[in-house]
Amino acid sequence: MNPRIEVVALDCLMLRLFDEIAEANMPWLLAASERLRTVFGARLIDLVPSYTTLMVHYDLTLLSPAQARDLIAEALIDLAQNARSAGQCHVLPVWYDLSVGPELSLLAERSGLPVAEVIRRHSAREYQVFALGFAPGFAFMGLVEEMIAAPRLSTPRKKVAAGSVGIAERQTAAYPVVSPGGWNLIGRTPAQLFDRHRDGYSLMQPGDTVRFEAVDHAEFIRLGGDDTPLEALA
Asked: Where would I find the Carboxyltransferase domain in this sequence (predicted)?
């Protein structure tokens, strides 16, 4: 861990703890997050975790930038990994099919594996939720096995269906709402990933873990899934 403080805005500082993405970062990020919330108290407006950083948005009417830096330094004194258990584990059902996951064949070709093996490998791991962003409820998860990792599409799609499950490099995610996107799509989940009536809005939070569970078409529909083919959304 190599802590540095970077300026984001007049009332916002970035605490950078690591230089590389790793699952082992999360216990430290959770511990630092709890400490920061404690030392800032009501002077904290927002705290945004990511793969290697914590963005600290504070109330400039209550703290100067120098005082905010001092509080961040105080939070790091004798910091230890968060010993509490990880967040909630979510099991997301996924219908893996070419009609909703057209890059399944591409990933199979790149890896030299049968499509069924790509599906098995993607659903065999438990993924760490590193951060939320891009769209409300969009959880960046990893790390995907290198064998089935793939770069983003060179030309993003204008419209990706809600629930679409994709891979980009060694990350995986599910789109919570209809939106543009350039990830390699491999299936679709019926899970409601974003709900403005839910406490916290997003189904998943940083520190949670996710496991994808393959289901057939009938089960996908029974769970409320939308099987509209991707090309029909254009």
From this structure: 3-204
CA–CA separation, 168 and 56 (whole Å)? 27
Q: How many CA atoms lie within 13 A of 12 on its CB side?
A: 10
Which CATH code of 3.30.1360.40, 3.10.310.30, 3.20.20.80, 3.20.20.70 fits the domain covering 4-75?
3.30.1360.40
Using one digit for the tens of pLDDT, what is the confidence trace for 21-54?
A: 888 888 888 889 889 999 999 999 999 888 899 9
Residue 94 burial (C-beta neighbours within 10 Å; 0-12, 13-18, 19+): buried
| Cβ atoms of residues 175 and 168 within 8 Å | no
At position 132, the amino acid (one-letter code) is L
Q: Which amino acid is at 62?
A: L
pLDDT tens for each residue of 164-218: 999 999 999 999 999 999 999 999 999 999 988 777 688 998 889 999 999 999 9
Per-domain residue ranges for the chain? 4-75, 89-233
Half-sphere exposure (CA, 13 Å, Cβ side) for 218?
0
Going through the chain in order, the beta strands assigned E by DSSP cover 4-9, 12-16, 44-49, 53-58, 89-94, 126-132, 139-142, 157-160, 164-168, 171-174, 179-181, 184-188, 209-214
Does the domain at 89-233 match CATH 3.40.980.10? Answer given as: no
Q: Model's pTM, two decimal places?
A: 0.81
